[in-house]
Amino acid sequence: MTPTLEPMLGEFLKAHRARVNPEDAGLPSHTQRKVKGLRREEVAVLAGVSADYYARLEQGRETRPSAQVLDALSRALRLDTDARAHLHRLAGVVADEGYAPDVVSPELLRLMSGLHDMPAMVMNSVLDVLASNALADALYEPFSPADNAARMTFLDPAAQGFYARWHWVAQSTVAHLRQTAHPNSARLQQIVAALSENPVFRELWAQHEVRGKTQDAKEFVHPAVGPIKLSYHSFDVREAPGQFLVVYQAEPGPNADALKLLATSRATRAAASPGTTPVPLWLTGTAKSRP
User: Fold this and answer.
1) What pLDDT does 1 receive?
2) Contacts made by residues 7-11, CB under 8 angstroms, sequence distance 24+
3) Residue 60 · residue 13 · CB < 8 Å
4) Which strands form 226-236's sheet, in the order they lie side by side?
5) Which residues, 6+ apart, have CB-to-CB distance to 63 below 8 Å?
6) Which tens digit of pLDDT belongs to each residue from 17-64?
7) Which of 2, 11, 119, 161 has the lowest tally of Cβ within 10 angstroms?
8) How far apart are CA 235 and CA 213, in angstroms?
9) pLDDT (tens digit, 9 = 90+) per residue, 96-122?
10) Contact, 280 vs 137, CB < 8 A?
11) Could you tell me which CATH number the domain at 106-284 has?
12) What is the CATH superfamily name and number for domain 5-90?
């Protein structure tokens, strides 16, 4: 006899609850545990639902959880993209493919840290900078903080001097934001409200241009090394839909020399003032703050 979806949903939750190490979830495990993994009550706390509601889900007495509850459970149970999509299917809910946790995987952080001569960063669909390697931190050092590409472009006073073709960057940024962000995203609405202080942003946003780019070139004027032109490639992060990795590189010659000088300059200043230089994000795995 084929099992129904409701028991399968409960079985799936129980199986994945047993796989989560309490320490990995930030929970103490000093006392003797009768069950492997997390307790029901702990999953409920991590997901922001009542313990009774979560128990009904596992027992098959609650069969219509919302997409928001399923996403919260996915985070609590540390589900990867495929497991999260399966959880939604078991509940009969279509998963939002634009969803992505704002946590960059340790494997991707290690990959970025190994790109010593190429600035690299991970952003989400609303252009929040989730992670960056040391050279990307050096490249975007004029911004304080380097937290969201759209905010940096339109609200940070350093932007117009930093981007040699600021208006082109502004147009590209707005068109990219239109292309990647979900129109009903609360985070997008928050960003648009903040950026609307800038009249150029208001004008560009009203044009409804949509354009995503996987590769192009940008021209910078960096206070430490002067003019520098870098090409970039953008790659979707398969394990976290909505995240994308941006990697910059310089052609051999003056631009590559400037990039090397930038790396050397940052390293020299870090060695001279270890107490005032922030630890590169890729060493901590900590997401950058948002505006």
Assistant:
1) 37
2) 7/60, 8/90, 9/57, 9/60, 9/63, 9/87, 9/90, 9/91, 10/57, 10/58, 10/59, 10/60
3) no
4) 129-132, 120-123, 244-249, 226-236, 215-222
5) 5, 6, 9, 91
6) 998 888 777 776 656 666 788 889 999 999 999 999 999 999 988 878
7) 2
8) 10
9) 654 556 789 899 999 999 998 999 999
10) yes
11) 3.30.450
12) lambda repressor-like DNA-binding domains (1.10.260.40)
pTM of the model: 0.63
- CB-CB neighbours of 271 under 10 Å: 9
Domains 5-90 and 106-284 share a fold: no
Instruction: Take residue 130 and report the two structure tokens written for it.
Output: 């989730």
Please state the domain extents for the chain: 5-90, 106-284
Q: Predicted confidence band at 156 (pLDDT cuts at 50, 70, 90)?
A: very high
d(CA 92, CA 75): 19
Query: What 3-state class would DSSP assign to 80?
Result: coil
C-beta separation of 130 from 100 below 8 A = no
Residue 223, CA atoms < 13 Å, CB-side half-sphere: 10
Cis ω before 145 (30° cut-off from 0): yes
Q: What percent of the chain has pLDDT over 90?
A: 49
Structure tokens at 28: 């103490």
